[in-house]
Automatic annotation (TrEMBL):
The keyword Translocase applies. It is a multi-pass membrane protein. One of its GO terms (cellular component) is membrane. This is Uncharacterized protein. GO terms for molecular function: ABC-type oligopeptide transporter activity; ATP binding; ATP hydrolysis activity. It is found in: Endomembrane system. It holds the Pfam family ABC_membrane. Its main location: membrane. It comes from Leptobrachium leishanense (Leishan spiny toad). Keywords: ATP-binding, Membrane, Nucleotide-binding, Peptide transport, Protein transport, Translocase, Transmembrane, Transmembrane helix, Transport. The keyword Nucleus does not apply. Belongs to the ABC transporter superfamily. ABCB family. MHC peptide exporter (TC 3.A.1.209) subfamily. Residues 151-433 form the ABC transmembrane type-1 domain.
Amino acid sequence: MPPYPGRYLCADFGVMSASNKHHEFAHSGSLAGGTFPIISSDPRGHIVHSWSKLPSWLEGDPFPVPRIVLSLLIPSCVTVSSFVLPNSSSEILYSWRRWDLLLLCYLFTTTSAIIWQQMSPFEDEEPGTSAPSGSLRRLLSLLTPYVHRFVIVSVFLILSSWGEMALPSYTGRMTDWILNKEDPSAFRTAITAMSLITISSAVTEFLCDCIYNTTMSRIHTQTQGQVLRSVLKQEMAFFDTVPTGDITSRVTSDITAMSESLSSDLSLLMWYFMRAVFLSAYMCSLSPKLTIFTMMCLCVITLVPKVSGTFSQDLAVKVQESLSKANQVALETFSNMKTVISFANEDGESQRYESKMYDTYQLNKWEALAYGFSSVANSFSSLALKVGILYFGGRLVTNGEVTGGNLVSFVLYEMQFTSAVEVLLRMYPDVRKAVGSSEKVFEYMDRIPQMPKPGTHVPHKLKGHIQFQNVTFSYPKHPNIAVLQDVSFDLRPGEVTALVGQCDAGKSTVLQLLLRFYEPQNGKILLDGKPIAEYENQFYRRKVSVVSQEPALTSRSIQRNIAYGMEKVSLKSVQDVAKLAFAHDFISELSNGYQTGAGQKGGQLSGGQKQRVALARALVRDPQVLILDDATSSLDTETELKIQNVLYENAEKRTVLLISHRMNTVQRAKHILVLEDGQITEQGNHDDLLVQRGSYWKLWNKQTSSFQKENGE
Ligand SMILES: Nc1ncnc2c1ncn2[C@@H]1O[C@H](COP(=O)(O)OP(=O)(O)OP(=O)(O)O)[C@@H](O)[C@H]1O
């Protein structure tokens, strides 16, 4: 099935079919063992896949595997010996004195125990990671909405796989007819039937491929959108702790690897599983003994890819992590190009990138080695299987247990089956690798944001009265450092309140809490008497607007930057707010006016221009609460004064919080809060605070004296 044709040209067997049956076998083995996933989330929001390892009647048994293996020992030995030593089944029960048989039994027991151990699923120690089989099931769950299409695909799949059995079946029959010198017309009929069935099989395969691939493309697109949506819903702490390179790599390359696995590997899995079912059924009808022997050999050789696959999957995860670290360096460098150039650190950044890439190269070498090793190991085990099957098949022929024609058919089926296994063994590590890629994607997709449930409150009228009540907060990255301690204050409607303090006092943190980027550990933040978390998100973000010191603009037109996040805003409204923010004049002078692109991160505008565009962007929403975090720091004194006038003159319309380092911008504020080491130490108006001769007085004196010095007064 495209994009992987699903047929392999084997030198010795001609065109052979491949199968993913082994993969399915391994997982159905774990199901047979009574395992099933339990999905829950830990307190940090990570999805945890845990596994109930054994059925309830076996839980609490400290030695379940040896016990089960020992109980199966004698029947297993009898079964094996019936193949190896014909007519000795009963004899073996009384032959424990024979060292060779005893050795054979223990050899079988050990092998069974190892197989059992290997097939039991992994337990998740790490929160947020899912077991490989869990990921596979999760991959399959993506297909659920398209179940009706898969029903059609399955029907075509069955018909096509069944049709493929015609060639070996009719070849066997023709052999019998030739050997028995039967009617030549029967020979012609057989050839016609065989051709018709094979052509029908090819047509159904084509239809199956078309439906399957269109469905898969749709699933790919949807998954990519789902992951991005899920990432965008995460709380700010997630973006603080997870590097941007990591997130980008998950949303782009990991999803591509995962969808490739869905479209090629999963298609192979389905296709060849069905084929293997038909092959084994036909083989069983011809010689049950030889079929059982083939299956038993398959059980043993599945160990090889299982072991090598686990190793290369671990390596694949490490390579991905290492690559994402290198990407992070490149991303950081490109986004800070001006800093890199101004400090002439191009070589330093190149070296940093090269050193990360060197780490990836080292891991890649191990990965290549592991891949080579697994290929060789798979080839050897496949060779051993072929020899074994030919040996026992030959014995059955000489014993006369199957007819000549049936033997030919059986050998043809068997060759398809073994070559399918051979291809499967070769691709098994790749499948594991793809499943490995999907683990992190699902980790992001299933991550529950650590935020309270979104609120629904949408009042008709909002006054804009903000209250901080005994708020204590530390950033998730440093949970032991309280950035705000027991902070209480009011931002009253119709007033400009200023927040001042030394660097690192926690001023911007107040803003971040107001914007609901983080949740305080203690205390409440209320808007008109209701906790801010109870307000509907869109409504809240429209009513509470912020302009920061370094506003982030996007690479779209200035008009669209001002109207960012709003659906229908006329050019006239945009121009009106731009005039209020004293941005209209400079925008009109640009080559394309409001349609001029702002450049990446607003890079084509100066710091002051960016701040004015950001102010217009906040004002266009007509917010009830406006927060300015050093928002005019890059403006010249004259423009800053003009903007201040606008704010103070329109103060009665809304609640304004002014965070500033420049003391001259805050002195007109009705209420001034002084923040020191995360605590409000003084509050009042400018004159009251100067009289107190406290921290505010010191800050004021410091700035005015340095201003006087600068002006030579
Ligand atoms: N995302 C974050 N994760 C961890 N710690 C942070 C984070 N943001 C700020 N901090 C820390 O919180 C403290 C207060 O920072 P904040 O930015 O609120 O101070 P500020 O008063 O606004 O400083 P400035 O005036 O220099 O902007 C600082 O020690 C800072 O290192």
